[in-house]
Write a structure and sequence with these properties.
CATH superfamily: TolB, C-terminal domain
Strand content: 35-45%
CATH topology: Neuraminidase
Number of domains: 1
Mean pLDDT: 81
Number of strands: 26
Number of helices: 0
Low-confidence stretches: 3-33, 293-302, 309-326
Helix content: under 10%
Radius of gyration: 18 Å
Structural class: mainly beta
Length: 326
């Protein structure tokens, strides 16, 4: 696996956003009158699995139950699928799961390590990181159709997450052997450097295309920053002494979700896009992690199932809903 993912307790959560028809504007856990759902990664019941919750932290439930870790990375644009990676078959492969029916589909089945899947804005393609081109554990950015067909190598070496521009014309990424964020076309051409280093990674493009959020160690601590998509106006958003990282934009871009250890454990928080009004969403005894964003159009049907546990619940693990959240 890419070396950055071997760092102890590196945030590996996945968050995605989906626009649901809201019953009323201004309801807690809504943005502009539309509710938000979040997918994330947690080991609260043993192995790392995919969970979903409301934007305010309510209704937390597990949607995968495979024998090995399952790590979510993005939603399909219509909000019906979560793309995730898992090592349940031996190698790391990419799957999707419908969080309402729990139906899973295996997308890749190569002997290589295929990871970090991210749907394109129109849902037709998935960008991912793999060592298919060899040698083993030498990773690059590939793109395939959403059903796993017609995969091609962009020729760009990277073992870190990528993010699509909202119009699907560009990708933001971390080139291997560097500590900056670059931009490129989906075919690997047009490579440019967006940020200076050091220690810059995990970009997240805002829904309106104007900004890119990222994490960086450049000021001596892991914190979240934003920069204009043209490279101007870099701004540091978090300054807590604890590590804050893995930013993702929620809904229309008015909020950013992230992971923090400020309360002694990896948990998910949200803040305003300008860095104000930070709110904790999860209160698990396990580690809850990895934000990234998208859109959903209808509320889950009543009585949607929770995946049966594969491991016994961790001692003291909870799934706490915030008072007043949807």
């Amino acid at each position: 696996m890419p070396s950055w993912r071997k760092t102890a307790f590196l945030a590996v959560l996945a968050i995605a956003v989906t626009t649901l028809a809201a019953s009323a504007a201004g309801t807690p856990g809504t943005q502009g009158g539309a509710a938000v759902r979040i997918a994330f990664n947690s080991d609260r019941e043993g192995s790392l699995q995919v969970f979903v919750m409301g934007a305010g932290g309510a209704d937390q439930r597990r949607v995968t139950s495979g024998p090995n870790s399952s790590e979510p990375w993005s939603w399909s644009p219509d909000g019906t699928l979560i793309a995730f990676e898992t090592s349940r078959t031996g190698s790391v492969d990419i799957y999707t799961v419908n969080p309402d029916t729990l139906e899973e589909t295996q997308i890749t089945s190569e002997p290589s390590q295929d990871s970090l899947p991210v749907f394109s804005p129109d849902g037709s393609r998935i960008a991912f990181v793999t060592d298919r081109a060899g040698p083993p554990n030498t990773y690059g950015i590939w793109i395939m159709d959403a059903d796993g067909s017609d995969a091609y190598d962009t020729g760009v070496a990277s073992g870190n997450p990528v993010t699509w521009s909202p119009d699907g014309s560009r990708l933001a990424y971390n080139p291997s052997g560097t500590s900056y964020i670059g931009l490129m076309n989906p075919n690997g051409t047009g490579q440019t450097q967006l940020t200076p280093g050091p220690g810059v990674r995990i970009p997240a493009w805002s829904p309106d295309g104007s900004k890119i959020a990222f994490e960086s160690f450049r000021d001596g601590n892991r914190d979240i920053y934003v920069i204009d998509a043209d490279g101007d106006n870099e701004t540091r958003l978090t300054t807590d002494p604890a590590e804050d990282g893995d930013p993702t934009w929620l809904g229309g871009g008015s909020q950013i979700a992230f992971v923090s250890e400020r309360d002694g454990n990896q948990e998910i928080y949200v803040m305003d896009a300008g860095g104000q009004t930070e709110t904790r969403l999860t209160f698990s005894a396990g580690a809850d992690r990895r934000p990234t964003g998208t859109v959903v159009y209808s509320a889950p049907p009543a009585g949607t199932p929770t995946a049966p546990p594969h491991h016994p619940a961790a001692s003291g693990a909870t799934s706490t809903a915030l008072a007043g959240s949807p």
